[in-house]
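Entry 14. Ran structure prediction on the chain below.
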Amino acid sequence: MKTNKAAVFGLCFVVLIISAVFGVCSGAVWISPFKLAADAFDGIASPDERIIMYIRLPRVLGAMLSGAALAVSGAVIQSVLANPLAAPNIIGVNAGAGLLTVLCAAFFPGAVKLLPTAAFLGAFGAVMLVYGIAKKTGASRMTLVLAGIGVSSLLNAVIDTVTTLCPDVLAGISSFKSGGFSGVTVKSLFPAWLFIAVGIAAAVMLSHDLDVLALGDNTARSLGMNAGAVRFIFLVIAALLAGASVSFSGLIGFVGLIVPHMARKITGTSENTAVLPVCALLGGAFLCLCDTLARTVFAPYELPTGIVVSYIGVPFFIWLLIRKKGGRHGA
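Output, structure tokens:
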């Protein structure tokens, strides 16, 4: 079914804005957007404005950036690996980023600006390792998923080892492993937001090449494309996005699995020229809403955002496994 792309983009943008406004206004205490707008013109910084500026707004910005990054990363990985079950958390990308982030925090605790770079290197190393294992053993869809689960389990075990040996330095690692935005500040989003902006822009600009690559290596080569080099570039982009997100949000899973499928359903196409921009908008809105639920459903208590996402993502993943019959199609 053909869909009006401009209308879809506009609708997704409106959903993103609504989710952001809802996230800023929601919390242990509801702050009316109308009251907030009125306070903004009186020239006096009210307590509500301080709550918005220093607590809720950074969280909303962080959730939108992380959601957009993970969603686009997931869409790229699914296209490059020709596997609808692939996602940054499932094939070990998040765990690789998390491991290097934890090591950087343990051995270089003052080098906060190094975290996005360390996370990117970890993510890239993990995705290349999983891809290499799957290639070596027969790159079926299920082989790739199983290789990713194995690598992810190993990397998480190393993370647990490091946190056990360095308990004082990594006191907040439990919240990092669950994933969330409770400690996010505007300052902590730099330079990760720059990595995310560059990664999304590169993915969108090269989306036509991604569509060609998805046709298969032989077809891509017949069209004059160096399939190996292009695949490598897209894996770098996916790792950059996932790593930058993990550096400030922790190990949030399933966004990169759920949102690309939603985007393809909404756009009515698998063409990445349409899917990737919609993924960025929907991913930001989805994770923003999940974070809002995490801090309001049991207020004044707060759940880690990653737990809320898992409640949605695990059933979705199981449904995909059943629908794809365990990956037999295209194996």
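The chain has one domain: 5-327. Will compare against last week's run tomorrow.
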